[in-house]
Specification:
The chain is an alpha/beta fold and 359 residues long. The chain has two domains: 5-43 and 269-353, Aspartate Aminotransferase, domain 1 (Alpha-Beta Complex), CATH 3.90.1150.10; 45-265, Aspartate Aminotransferase, domain 2, CATH 3.40.640.10. Helix content is 40%, strand content 16%. The protein has a seven-stranded mixed beta sheet with strand order 2-8-7-6-5-3-4, sandwiched between helices. A hairpin with a 4-residue loop joins strand 12 and strand 13 (333-336). Bound molecules: pyridoxal-5'-phosphate. Residues 89-91, 115, 158, 162, 189, 191, 219, 221, 227, 232 line the site of pyridoxal-5'-phosphate (PLP).
Length: 359
């Protein structure tokens, strides 16, 4: 058989080991996972009640247009319903954008490091991924602009950026948008927008009115605590949403996901509480990292990018043995902000591991 040539050498995504398996292997009673930026505070009680009420509906296909969720989300955001495209997680919206706009002979521009899904999807479509190094963890928007050519179809901007946690302020983003040619799609991934506390964070919804080539991606997987149910969305001009709908599968959003997301929106107090708890947790983690004496970027998200001098892979392995699962990158580690107790455990483990390794 002859598969598409561009997929043959793609790395297969390796999910982290389930916590229970790690516990058994290492003989530990308690293992915490601070690797995937999940919400340590769970999800709203409104969601629990709404889901229980829907358990009889499993034999029925979901609403392929997500009408109820669409209406409620549109009024929450102050946009029209037909400006929203839903995805099975915002991961799927990344895929829809790539499917609709990329093909061999075109390119997509993105930062490095950034969310790896942009590059994988460009590769699957046979398009070139042009990676522009970050400066101190921040997008180098001028260098990204300079890479745009007549083959460019999409520029990915992750704000705040995963894995570095750095945010692009509104003035800088506007300056960038003003210079991007109007036929190039700017995909602004705001998976962590609800965690941002810096008032200079752009109001992407307002920017959509002026920039017709902009799409903003958000998700219910992070602050809303619904990662298992896979609900993400993009907000854009109707013309873009129309193109994405053409490559979307009819029932990409399941019924429980639609139900849960609708209920989650009705509990903004939960979101505010999580944002405040996360901010306190960030400060707790900064204080601990300062005490350990390791370098990190201050973050606008629910994770922190830490740059130790020791080998990240080794730190990952040693922390795992102490019951703390984190994420290793080539030059850094990334830890999710957990509950107060989880942060304490993570900091103790990191301090122990770095104290042992020759720096
Ligand atoms: C987690 C994450 C997403 C995707 O989340 P979904 O669960 O697919 O909605 C998208 N972008 C970034 C930058 C993320 O970190």
């Amino acid at each position: 058989m002859i598969p598409k040539s561009q997929i043959v050498d793609l790395p297969v995504y390796e999910p982290g080991k389930p916590i229970d398996e790690v516990k058994r292997e290492l003989g530990l009673d308690e293992v915490i996972k601070l690797a995937s930026n999940e919400n340590p505070f769970g999800y709203s009680n409104h969601v629990r009640e709404a889901l229980i009420s829907q358990l009889e509906h499993l034999p029925i296909y979901p609403d392929g247009a997500s009408m109820e969720l669409r209406g409620i989300l549109a009024s929450f955001l102050g946009v029209d319903g037909d400006q929203i495209i839903f995805g099975n997680g915002s991961d799927e919206v990344v895929m829809l954008i790539s499917r609709a706009y990329l093909q061999p002979g075109t390119n997509a521009i993105m930062a490095s490091p950034t969310f790896s899904v942009y590059k994988t999807n460009a590769a699957i479509e046979g398009a070139e991924a042009i990676e522009v190094p970050c400066i101190d963890g921040a997008h180098d928007l001028d260098a990204m602009l300079a890479q745009i050519n007549d083959k460019t179809r999409v520029v990915w901007v992750c704000n705040p950026n995963n894995p570095t946690g750095k945010m692009i302020p509104e003035a800088e983003l506007v300056k960038f948008l003003d210079q991007v040619p109007s036929h190039v799609l700017v995909a602004l991934d705001e998976a962590y927008s609800e965690y941002v506390t810096d008032p200079a964070y752009p109001d992407a919804i307002a920017l959509l009115k002026k920039y017709r080539n902009l799409i903003t991606l958000r998700t219910f997987s992070k602050i809303y605590g619904l990662a298992a149910l896979r609900v993400g969305y993009g907000i854009a001009d109707q013309e873009i949403v129309d193109k994405l709908n053409r490559v979307r599968e009819p029932f990409n959003l399941n019924h429980l996901g639609q139900t849960a997301a609708t209920a989650a929106l009705s509990d903004q107090k939960f979101v505010q509480d999580c944002r405040a708890l996360n901010e306190a947790g960030r400060n707790q983690v900064y204080a601990g990292l300062d005490e350990i004496g390791v370098k990190y970027y201050p973050s606008e998200t629910n994770f922190v990018y830490i740059m130790p001098e020791a080998n990240p892979r080794e730190i990952f392995n040693e922390m795992m043995k102490l019951g703390v699962i984190i994420r290793a990158f080539p030059q850094a580690i990334r830890v999710t902000i957990g509950s107060k107790e989880q942060n304490e455990k993570m900091l103790t483990a990191l301090g122990t591991v770095l104290g042992r390794t020759v720096q």
